[in-house]
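Structure first, sequence second, as always.
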């Protein structure tokens, strides 16, 4: 088979394999060549446009997914921040109604501990304040309008209470009090001894206690053998 026959055979195979691409055939340079129609060119261009459109749609879809994910992340971040702020606000509210005071342990030792108080004020616009003052304090207490509360009615000018920072209207929530107990070692009890008096200083909760008992608790600080000042825990309107 000569070269011309080979070219003719190749053109014929092209015609058989790709009939949809040729509108006609021409003899050029001793070879049969397909003639691509305008319709085929338009179809090819349309195919390219369709492919480009699919790419644009895919890109747009990716952008929408990215935007959705970003919005979701922002919402989650905002929710986390809101939870953190809520927790901080609750902790801050707890701090307003807590105080570090000496707590007497069963073994007789005393440890400084943080104690939380339930607010008396319904508006929760108050705070707990710890004050120290020597006896005599120089103040007048009275029963508060709310049942079971003790309130500062007057503060003597230049007195120990004023110097300690006590204010008229303060609600007394707790104070130190002293109690005398009889203690005796085992050998003394076996020998029939009556023991030795020992004074213990503790925190006395004023809430719902009789007014006379509160006054006695404050006065009992005179029995403190160490002569320490009276510790007052008061609730007052927040500044």
């Amino acid at each position: 088979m000569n070269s011309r026959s080979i070219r003719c055979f190749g053109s014929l195979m092209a015609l058989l394999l790709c009939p949809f691409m040729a509108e006609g055939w021409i003899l050029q340079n001793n070879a049969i060549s397909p003639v691509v129609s305008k319709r085929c060119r338009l179809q090819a261009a349309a195919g390219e446009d369709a492919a480009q459109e699919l790419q644009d749609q895919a890109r747009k879809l990716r952008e929408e997914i990215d935007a959705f994910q970003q919005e979701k992340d922002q919402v989650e971040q905002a929710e986390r921040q809101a939870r953190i702020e809520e927790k901080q606000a609750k902790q801050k509210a707890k701090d307003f109604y807590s105080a570090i005071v000496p707590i007497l342990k069963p073994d007789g030792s005393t440890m400084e501990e943080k104690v939380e108080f339930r607010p008396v004020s319904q508006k929760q616009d108050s705070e707990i304040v710890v004050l120290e003052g020597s006896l005599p304090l120089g103040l007048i207490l009275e029963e508060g309008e709310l049942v079971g509360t003790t309130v500062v009615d007057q503060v003597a000018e230049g007195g120990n209470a004023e110097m300690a920072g006590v204010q008229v209207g303060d609600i007394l929530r707790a104070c130190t009090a002293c109690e005398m107990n009889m203690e005796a070692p085992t050998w003394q009890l076996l020998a029939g001894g009556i023991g030795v008096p020992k004074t213990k200083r503790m925190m006395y909760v004023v809430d719902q206690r009789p007014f006379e008992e509160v006054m006695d608790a404050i006065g009992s600080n005179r029995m403190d053998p160490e002569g320490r000042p009276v510790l007052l825990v008061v609730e007052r309107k927040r500044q």
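Margin note: The chain has two domains: 3-36, 98-237.
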